[in-house]
Amino acid sequence: MLKKLIVDLGERSYPIFIADGALASPELWQDCLVKRGKVVIVTNETVQKWYLEPLKNALKSIGVDALSCILPDGEQYKDLQHFNDILTFLLENSAGRDSTIFALGGGVIGDMSGFAAACYQRGIDFIQVPTTLLSYVDSSVGGKTAVNHPLGKNMIGAFYQPKAVIIDLNTLKTLPEREIAAGMAEVIKYGIIWDPEFFQYLEDNSDKIWAQDLETLSHVVYRCCEIKAEVVHQDETEGGLRAILNLGHTFGHAIETFMGYGVWLHGEGVAAGMVMAARLALKRGNISAADFERIRALIAKNRLPVSRPESMPGEAFLKLMIHDKKNRQGHINYIIPDSLGHVSLYRDVTDAEALEAVG
Ligand code: NAD
Ligand code: GLY
Does 185 lie in the same domain as 296? Predict the structure, then answer.
């Protein structure tokens, strides 16, 4: 069951392939590998155990001998040092401008390899092969690449689009439950920001996703990628609309930074953050108590946190959110639901309101 869609960005357009077994089916995606230079698979110690050989073999079957650059596993390694390790690997292996990187892994590998591809010799091709639910539906699509800085998440990076995204739904079979839940946070996000019918679909079908029913999974991943592709098509570099994809992220990034990278997963921070944004919307009268409860309940049903970490005081949010990339002139900007299915950027939220929202 193959689904394909195009991220329409003019000359930077690219396909997304969604199928069980896509990774080992080069006939689907080999046309996207247009350069004849070195092919380097960047992955991590965990993902390589299951998926490096199948991808290498797929490439071998079309006459490509790929090199592999294996990084340690974890958000705490998404930093300039490990970004530099990728560049060093490319240089030590005499990779030229005609090289292509395959980013095989979750969002950490995708973000870091994409940024390395953007910088190496002023830009080489890269192909995203996401292996987590979160990276299927969010990080592999849209060209945001970055590493973290001790003072803030994703603070060093570039917009740089891949040449293709290859989503193999079979890779979820090895993904731990906690990571599936983290991906569900981003899935639910699309319902809240864009598509109330999809939100309702998730209320009705979350159990089938958890059971990894292929038809449901394929529909959900396709719909999320379709929404993200449309948003990125309208606003590739976040001049305006694209900021809606950051629902819950302002609060969530603060949690991730406060707790130390990797302690709370990105999706967990986003989940709690979306409840906080929904509470702001409730207090402002944008959404009803019933809709607030639907949001909270769907997040909780998907095994995600709905409140802040006990050790994190409300004031810590304000201190950390001041570094958010959406901010302008020292004001914290928030994405808040106007209704269930639509959100906007609000510039007038007071610190008192934000403190109330974090609960
Ligand atoms: P991750 O990359 O850390 O992967 C989660 C864990 O699952 C890791 O331990 C990884 O090794 C393991 N793993 C990956 N695939 C597996 C599989 N198939 N089976 C078993 N284990 C597997 O985390 P993530 O949630 O995929 O991504 C989070 C990162 O993505 C954050 O750094 C976040 O900032 C970034 N992000 C970027 C964007 C963007 O637009 N670029 C959007 C959202 C998130
Ligand atoms: N994950 C937010 C974005 O891609 O803009």
Answer: yes
How many domains does the chain contain in total?
Answer: 2
Residues spanned by the domain of 191: 177-358
> What is the residue-wise DSSP string for 84-109?
HHHHHHHHHTT--TT-EEEEEESHHH
State the distance from the centre of ligand 2 to the C-alpha of 237, rounded, in angstroms. 10
- Is position 253 annotated as part of the catalytic site? yes
Decide which of 174, 198, 222 is a domain's last residue: 174
Is the pTM above the cut of 0.90?
yes
* Closest among 248, 242, 213 to 228, alpha carbons compared: 242
Measured at the alpha carbon of residue 324, what is the angle toward residues 321 and 326, in degrees to the nearest 5?
Answer: 130
Domain limit, last residue, from 150, 174, 198? 174
Q: Is the pLDDT of residue 331 over 90?
A: no
**Residues in the chain, total:** 359
What whole-number percentage of the chain has pLDDT above 70?
Answer: 98
CA 141 to chain centre: 8
46 lines ligand 1 (CB under 6 A): yes
Domain identity same for 57 and 146: yes
Whether 272 and 255 share a structural domain: yes
CA atoms of 27 and 44, how far apart (whole Å): 25
| Bridge-based pairing state of the strands 342-346 and 39-44 | unpaired
Query: Separation of 70 CA from ligand 2 center, angstroms?
Result: 25
Report whether residue 249 contacts ligand 2, using a CB cutoff of 6 Å: no
Q: In angstroms, rounded to a whole number, what is the distance separating the alpha carbons of residues 1 and 9?
A: 26
Residue 182 CB–ligand 1 contact under 6 Å: yes
Ligand 1 contacts CB of residue 302 (under 6 A):
no
Quick check: 128 and 55 in contact, CB under 8 A?
Answer: no
Dihedral pair phi/psi, residue 339, rounded to 5° = -160, 175
Share of the chain above pLDDT 90, in %: 90
266 is catalytic: yes
